Structures are given as C-alpha cells and as structure tokens.
Amino acid sequence: MTGLLVAVAGAAGVLTRYGFTEAMGRDAALWSVLSVNVAGSFALGVLAGAGASEQMRAVAGVGFLGGFTTFSTFSLDVFADLDAGRPARALVYVVLSVGLGVGAAAAGWALARA
Question: Cα(40)–Cα(92) distance, rounded to whole angstroms?
Fold first, then answer.
C-alpha cells in the first residue's frame, strides 16, 4: 500500500511542479526550478526534523517531494548555460541552488525541532 501512496504522491508532486513552472512562464523556467528545489528542501527539512514516520517520509518525502523537486533539470540548466557561454550565470545558479537548498533544509529542520 505504501508503494501505491508514494506513486500517487509522486504524480501530485510532478503536477504541482509543472503547474508552478507554467504559472511563472517559460522565461522564468530557470528561477522556477530554483524556487521549487529550495521549497522542496525546506519541506523535506521540516519532515525530517519533525520526526515523521517512515511511511510519511516515504509518501511525502520520496513521493511528493521527489516528484516536486528536480535535480536533473538543475543539472541540465547548468550545462546549458555553460554550453551557451554563460559561465558566470551557471556559477551563480549553482551557488544559489546549493546554498539556498541546504540553508532551506536546515531552516526547515530547525523550525520543526523548535
């Protein structure tokens, strides 16, 4: 049963990310991926910090947040910027994505523990 719930939650996460990206517009695709990944990192930090059950972590963490966030798109965006001769933009995106993502996860964890 948990596997089915993970699959349904994953589909919901993917659809949420798609809707968010569409709402922001194609011109903002890079920044929508950054926003989704930071928000997902925060949410996963809250989930982990709150001591959620194994099933909740599987459904919400692996399922919904796994579908919602996207490392592969982040990686391709960095490569595309490098390939297009925009190394500074690629570097800023990497630093912001990793720094804000880790910071958001830590903030979520701390918030849940408070």
Answer: 20
In terms of C-beta density within 10 A (0-12 exposed, 13-18 middle, 19 or more buried), how is residue 50 classed? middle
pTM of the model: 0.85
C-alpha distances out from residue 31 to 16, 22, 26, Å: 16, 12, 10
Tell me what pLDDT residue 103 has.
97
* Tens digits of residue pLDDT in 29-57: 889 999 999 999 999 999 999 988 999 99
d(CA 69, CA 109): 18
Which of 21, 8, 15 has its CA nearest to residue 74? 21
Q: What is the C-alpha to C-alpha distance for residues 55 and 97, in angstroms, rounded to an integer?
A: 28
For residue 72, pLDDT over 90 is answered with: no
Is 31 exposed, middle or buried, given 0-12, 13-18 or 19+ CB atoms closer than 10 A?
middle
